[in-house]
Amino acid sequence: MFILISTIFSLSNFTYMFFVLRAQQFFSGKLSVLLPLLFYSIFNILYASFSIPAGILSDKIGRGKVIRIGYLLFSLVCLGFVFANSFLPFLFLFAFYGIVYALVNGNQRAYVSDLSSPDLKATSLGIFHTLNGIAMLCSSLIAGILWQMNPSLTFLYGSVLSLVSFLLFWFWDLCR
After folding, report:
1. Half-sphere exposure at residue 53, Cβ-oriented, CA atoms within 13 angstroms
2. What is the per-residue pLDDT across 42-55, written as a single tens digit (0 to 9) for each?
3. What residues have CB less than 8 Å from 148, skipping those under 6 apart?
4. Which domain holds residue 72?
């Protein structure tokens, strides 16, 4: 069930380039290149800086809780990108985007491993990566189509689907 929920989340998790392109829309001249690069660097720095603490947190409070926080935060970040239009909002949104990746990326794999029986860990991880990879490819294709209609639709799509993933995961966790 978690692999299905994470695959739905991956359908919301389009490529980071849409975030960079969105930031680029609101700046002109050299700033339209420099600021998105700065924001993307901040994303990567925070992702790298928070990955180990996110793993430690998941060991303490549970991977499911950390992943759910990440799903919900991603929904809020995408929603923020609908409304952001200046330096400070983009700075904070890219920072939170990096934290989301730290919360979700490694912890999903660890959670799949935790949920799998010892003789099926590799198979479970293979299925997880295959389905999530296909979903992320589809997500970016959908995001691109929505971008051509209206860039805000791309982020609304990510926000809504991520929220659906959060709610499904929360409900599944309650029922277990």
Report:
1. 9
2. 999 999 999 999 99
3. none
4. 2-175
